[in-house]
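Reviewer comment 2.1 asked that we show a complete input and output for one of the modelled complexes. We chose the zinc ion case, as it is the one discussed in the main text.
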Amino acid sequence: MVLLPDNTSSDIIDLHAHTTESDGTLSPAELVELAVTTGLSALAVTDHDTFSGFEQALPVAKAAGLELVRGIELNSRLILETGEVRYAHLLAYFPIEDPSSEFTAWLGAERKERRDRNRKLAENLQERGIQVDLSEVEARGKSLAGRTHFAQVLVEKGYARTFDDAFNRFIGENAPAYVERQSPITQESIRLVRSGGGIPVIAHPVRLSLPRETEREILSGLRTAGLLGLEVYHSDHPPELQAHYRQLAEELDLLPTGGSDFHGAVKPDIRLGTGYHGNIRVPLEFLRAMRSFVTAKMSRV
Ligand SMILES: [Zn+2]
Ligand SMILES: [Zn+2]
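Response of the prediction step:
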């Protein structure tokens, strides 16, 4: 059976969108304008690793009367029982209160560490006579600049034939210029978000490629570690998967969330508010439930 979103009113929201502050192509102000012309009732800005898109969008949204939610998307490593590693994206929402200063300080330190790693990687390459500049890499990767962007530059400049070649010969784990840097494990990211006052949510669970037999067990384990939500509606989730994740969220007592994962011109098929060819419709109730959760928790303290 296909469960349809339980919202038939005009209150459509989008809880997952990127700006030029991470890897999107619309500026924060342009994203707000688009949300307004699309007729959204609320929008969460969820750039990778930074709140600066949200912060720039906030005055514009206030002036336009659009409800804006503070969010962020973090990368983490999910280590399976088999030892395999999956890169789990964690969305964190702060629908009522701002994040703690410890959390923003941690974010700042993470960004600095990533930049230091990239600088060192560029230096290692330069020492080997490979002219790759950090600015070229950062122009491609923005706040997410990492080894894939180094690989792009190496291929474009003719130092490597393919991505694999770039990794094998220069920047892969066993290659000479490699510099170690790893995202925190998912449980640790969840803990950091919770202690920072946020709602941690597993983004686009389909991309974890977990077999159905272990998916529930793994999500249930993450819930024990403090996970509070599951992204049920997402442009990558066809209707049957939306129904599946909606049910799983309900069974595991996780807050259902949803959003298009809008990036602008780099993913032209994905529209703000409606996703991939209109496959999502996120009800305002999801945001209300998040707020009630936070309010109930605050009143208990
Ligand atoms: Zn993601
Ligand atoms: Zn995203």
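Residues 160 and 166 are 5 Å apart (CA to CA). We note this here for comparison with the apo prediction described in Section 3.2.
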